[in-house]
Design goal:
Length: 295
């Protein structure tokens, strides 16, 4: 007698039976987000990797511990689709990593450029956080939920030629610290403050600039802009951490029984913040102006 064939279970049913903890990461097309996918999977997390262009995630190693979804944090419908797609998973963590840097002197910055910077780095970050918080709260046992805001050393201090980016990361720091006061201890909020990272972040610098070099011609900033681009790229490759090293620190913090409030990544981030606190403001600013060719 032939054994009765077992009915096939749907993919949705298989997903609902998965008891592992899942983390959604924004901005996984490259850099820290891409590296964090691998770091969390090694630690036993299920990972929902997202990017605006989902095809950039096609080369991620397949597995039952991975889902890929398109996500534009500035698009309400895109966020709604991701929220719905996560319902069958035990989502307990969110990593807000998506962002970019709008560089250039504030004097030449257009209003729409500043607005776009905040739409992605700040408004979008808060939008996806608010949308997924109910699921994280429902799925995680008290103290086990994780929300990670990837800010920057420039969320604690400012450099010239990056006013829009500085401001957006200062806002991310404020959002993280306020959110922690509101949702802890049930959910841990981890603020990550990297220094220089060897990523494609600066490779997209000139794309974000647009016609800024043309606007700067004939102004005191013309040479400073070129100096800034070369300086930041050289500094990152000489002193910056790899994306993988940064991702490991984030994954370790997320997996800790007691999650840290802050993760300062890189010696440059640590010592820059120490110098900012201890040096007289006039001296600190003079050093920065000279460093960026503005003295």
């Amino acid at each position: 007698m032939q054994p009765r064939p077992q009915p096939k279970r749907s993919r949705k049913a298989d997903m609902s039976m998965d008891t592992r903890s899942w983390a959604l990461i924004t901005g996984c097309s490259s850099g820290i987000g891409r590296a964090l996918v691998a770091s969390l999977r090694r630690r036993g997390w299920g990972v929902i990797a997202t990017a605006r262009k989902v095809e950039t995630l096609a080369d991620l190693p397949l597995g039952e511990d991975l889902r890929v979804m398109p996500l534009d944090v500035t698009d309400a419908q895109s966020i709604a689709r991701v929220v719905e797609g996560c319902r069958a998973l035990r989502l307990t963590a969110l990593v807000n990593n998506a962002g970019y840097g709008q560089m250039g002197p504030l004097e030449l910055l257009r209003t729409e450029e500043l607005r776009a910077q905040f739409e992605t780095n700040v408004i979008g970050l808060q939008a996806i956080t608010s949308a997924l918080l109910p699921q994280i709260r429902a799925n995680a046992s008290p103290g086990a939920g994780r929300i990670v805001h990837v800010a920057s050393v420039l969320g604690r201090l400012s450099i010239p030629m990056a006013g829009a980016y500085n401001a957006s990361k200062h806002a991310v720091v404020a959002l993280a610290e306020s959110l922690r006061l509101e949702v802890a201890p049930a959910i841990a909020v981890i603020l990550v403050e990297p220094g220089a990272i060897k990523t494609q972040f600066r490779a997209t610098l000139k794309q974000a600039w647009g016609d800024l070099p043309e606007r700067a011609k004939g102004t005191r900033f013309e040479q400073s802009i070129l100096h800034y681009a070369a300086k930041r790229e050289d500094y990152a490759y000489q002193h910056g951490m790899t994306s993988e090293a940064c991702a490991e620190q984030i994954a370790k913090a997320m997996s800790a029984r007691r999650a840290p409030r802050r993760v300062v990544v890189g010696r440059d981030s640590f010592w820059a913040q120490v110098a900012h606190r201890l040096l007289p403001a006039a001296l600190f600013e003079r050093v920065l102006r000279r460093s960026y060719g503005l003295d």
